[in-house]
Amino acid sequence: MFTLIFVCLCLLCCNLHAETECIPKTSEFKMKGDYLLGGLFDIHHVKNINKLICSTFPVYSQNFTLSSYRRFQMMRFSVEEINNSTSLLPNVTLGYEIFDHCSDTKNFPGIFSLMSVDGSVQPWKESVNFSKVIAVVGTYTSTASLAVAPLFSFELVSFFVLQISYGASSSVFSRKQNFPSFLRTLHPNKDVIEIILRFLEKFKWTWVAFLYIDDDYGRDGLDLFGKKIKDTEICLAFSHGLEENTDYPKLIKQMEALRINVVIVFTTEWTAEKLIMSAIQQNVTNKVWIAVDAWSLHKDLPKKTGIRNIGTVLGFAEPKITIPGFSDFINSFKAQNQCENPQQDPLCNQMCNCSSLSAEDIITADPSFNFPVYSAVYAIAHALHAVLQCGAGSCNKSIKVYPHMVLEELRKSNFTLLNQTIHFDDNGDPKFGPYAIVFWNESGDADEIGSFMFHPEFNFDINEFKIHWHGDKKPESFCSKECPDGYMKKQEGVHKCCFSCTICPKETYLNTTDPYNCLKCKDKEWSAEGSTTCKPRQLEYVRFSDPTAIVIMIGTVILLAFIVAITVLFALNYNTPVVRSAGGPMCFLILGCLSLCSISVFFFFGEPSVAFCILRYFPFLLFYTVCVVCLFARSFQIICIFKISPKFPNISRIWTKCNLHWIFISAAFLFQAILLINRFSLDPPKQYKDKFYFDRIILGCELNKFLDNILISYSLISVLIFLSFCFSYAGKDLPKNYNEAKTITFCMFLLILIWVTFATFQTVVHGKNIDISNAVATLSSLYSLLLVYFLPRCYIILFKPEKNTEQYFQDLIQSYTRSYSQ
């Protein structure tokens, strides 16, 4: 309701003023034609809303915008060029009515003039007549467009006016439900923000300030920028809306305090002028200023004294497109027509005191947004060309042209203009026109150093070698220096760009997708400290090809060769006193069990399996028990003969007559066999993975629980070894040359030493060294028994045959008996 009242008041104002309105035909703001185009250009920029007469400001004042005046002339040139064309709209003449849109809120008389039908606007009333203007080119700013666009597409009137803007880039205009008759020929803010983001990512600037004009255009840019950097490494360290009364020295000090070296200036040219001039006055140095298309081609700022000291200015703008004929048009216009007309009523802003401007001033002015003006006029002309069904040399003027017909054809635009294909997307945004990347060089010019293509896809290309950085080095802009590889970030404060670095511990890694957390490696993987990936753990065990395994297996084969040789030697000398004193048939039992024990050594190598783990221990424990119990029986038998028999002859007789030594050996064997079979069948040793080494998995046999289960078996062997040692030690004073007891004593002592050493070593070694130490301990036990017990006897048989006689042994025994009796 408020909107309707406001519109009606404005209509009343316009109708009252229309009685005194007078626009000369020779005015550069107005030209008759078969079809009229409206134009809105901010030739003057007036902030004080009480000052409505725009033309009262001289051309060299702050309120006059030369670049906008150039755009204004570009529209006039475009219409004249189309009227002179024989292929586009033949026999049809375009006219225009242009207004100096010097204020965002005080230009409604001109707006209603464009909307009027027969001098008035009639809401709700259906009429066969409609606005004399088929389309409006303008306005320049988003705020101005937001003020007029709802009026041009007002649904309560019986018409609408098609509007094509050459400078309003706010994203709100892409909403067709709100602005159905609005199109534009420049890229929306979302595309501009995309270029800014590519700048920051290209040069790895993550700590930036965003200064924006505090209006619809600037606030929309800030909102889009904030959303765009949300999932990136870029942080918005500082943002501020620039107004007429902005305290620029304070603003610059705030940025300096935050150590910001990259400043995005998302504002209009007149606001940018104030900011840059203040930066020069405040002696700002070594910063990067990113200029948007609204001021990146500014003609005066790059030439200001001290501009080099503030740092490097990079920006983007339309490529410098030379529009043929424009310079001739301006030269011709300045020679034939002047703007002054004292009878011109200034209220509707169709007057310009521009006589002091030379043609050179206009031609060399900032060319920003000139091609969007040029393409907007041509897009309307092509749409009208289609509506009027123009053919070879003529158009059908009898066709009643309605605005919706022009709008429909305009949306389907697809024509080539200066090597660019002009067409629009569903939102009325352009699908044409690249941007040039520019650099303000030392001469005060904007050099093109790259380009940004929007269609058919984004393509950012820049030649860094053309950039001469202030201080000869590319500035850096960050809150915290990037962490080295393998270091995770720990955010400090509200900004994700401010962080400390912590190295990832071993067994973890840092994924590039999540720099804030060290991820744990999988079970079969490992990583060193400060890693960015995990590596597969190597499976490791003692292979048969391992040098240590080869040496131990060769030692085992040599052991078997010794056993065979000794067996043969003892067999050949079976009836000799040396063999009989060593135990006779018991020697062959010991030698056989030693050979069976040696089987266990081979299964300490190769990939561990349940079978391998069983065969590592079962043969050795079972048959080594027999060996030890034989030595125990033999040591007890020697004590019986030499120590017990003289005093207790019955005990010795019973031991010998009843063959108690064989019974004892068999009982020990059966008892150990039952224990081992029971334990190995119920809970056999299994393969396990030792992770003591973080970079590999050691395959072995699970011993801790298994050793608990066979503790009785080990205890049995230990008790037998201890008893053997005790009995043999008791015979230390036997005949000097009859050293069997001494041999057993030394053998048992050596076994005890080997297994104590092995048990100690087991607590300090890890991985496959455990298997190697097991194999060495097993083989050492076998060698100690074989060499210590059997080798001296082999020596006597082979090299001292005189001692291998019954007479020699009887003499020793009788000599000992006489001495023992005394």
From TrEMBL:
<feature type="domain" description="G-protein coupled receptors family 3 profile">
    <location>
        <begin position="548"/>
        <end position="813"/>
    </location>
</feature>
<keyword id="KW-0807">Transducer</keyword>
<keyword id="KW-0732">Signal</keyword>
<dbReference type="InterPro" id="IPR017978">
    <property type="entry name" value="GPCR_3_C"/>
</dbReference>
<dbReference type="InterPro" id="IPR000068">
    <property type="entry name" value="GPCR_3_Ca_sens_rcpt-rel"/>
</dbReference>
<feature type="transmembrane region" description="Helical">
    <location>
        <begin position="617"/>
        <end position="642"/>
    </location>
</feature>
<dbReference type="InterPro" id="IPR001828">
    <property type="entry name" value="ANF_lig-bd_rcpt"/>
</dbReference>
<keyword id="KW-0675">Receptor</keyword>
<feature type="transmembrane region" description="Helical">
    <location>
        <begin position="586"/>
        <end position="605"/>
    </location>
</feature>
<keyword id="KW-0812">Transmembrane</keyword>
<dbReference type="GO" id="GO:0050909">
    <property type="term" value="P:sensory perception of taste"/>
</dbReference>
<keyword id="KW-0297">G-protein coupled receptor</keyword>
<keyword id="KW-1133">Transmembrane helix</keyword>
<dbReference type="Pfam" id="PF00003">
    <property type="entry name" value="7tm_3"/>
</dbReference>
<dbReference type="InterPro" id="IPR028082">
    <property type="entry name" value="Peripla_BP_I"/>
</dbReference>
<dbReference type="InterPro" id="IPR038550">
    <property type="entry name" value="GPCR_3_9-Cys_sf"/>
</dbReference>
<feature type="transmembrane region" description="Helical">
    <location>
        <begin position="743"/>
        <end position="766"/>
    </location>
</feature>
<feature type="transmembrane region" description="Helical">
    <location>
        <begin position="549"/>
        <end position="574"/>
    </location>
</feature>
<dbReference type="GO" id="GO:0004930">
    <property type="term" value="F:G protein-coupled receptor activity"/>
</dbReference>
<keyword id="KW-1003">Cell membrane</keyword>
<dbReference type="InterPro" id="IPR011500">
    <property type="entry name" value="GPCR_3_9-Cys_dom"/>
</dbReference>
<protein>
    <recommendedName>
        <fullName>G-protein coupled receptors family 3 profile domain-containing protein</fullName>
    </recommendedName>
</protein>
<dbReference type="Pfam" id="PF07562">
    <property type="entry name" value="NCD3G"/>
</dbReference>
<feature type="transmembrane region" description="Helical">
    <location>
        <begin position="711"/>
        <end position="731"/>
    </location>
</feature>
<keyword id="KW-0472">Membrane</keyword>
<feature type="transmembrane region" description="Helical">
    <location>
        <begin position="662"/>
        <end position="682"/>
    </location>
</feature>
<dbReference type="InterPro" id="IPR017979">
    <property type="entry name" value="GPCR_3_CS"/>
</dbReference>
<dbReference type="GO" id="GO:0005886">
    <property type="term" value="C:plasma membrane"/>
</dbReference>
<dbReference type="Pfam" id="PF01094">
    <property type="entry name" value="ANF_receptor"/>
</dbReference>
<feature type="signal peptide">
    <location>
        <begin position="1"/>
        <end position="18"/>
    </location>
</feature>
<comment type="similarity">
    <text>Belongs to the G-protein coupled receptor 3 family. TAS1R subfamily.</text>
</comment>
<dbReference type="InterPro" id="IPR000337">
    <property type="entry name" value="GPCR_3"/>
</dbReference>
<feature type="transmembrane region" description="Helical">
    <location>
        <begin position="772"/>
        <end position="791"/>
    </location>
</feature>
<keyword id="KW-0325">Glycoprotein</keyword>
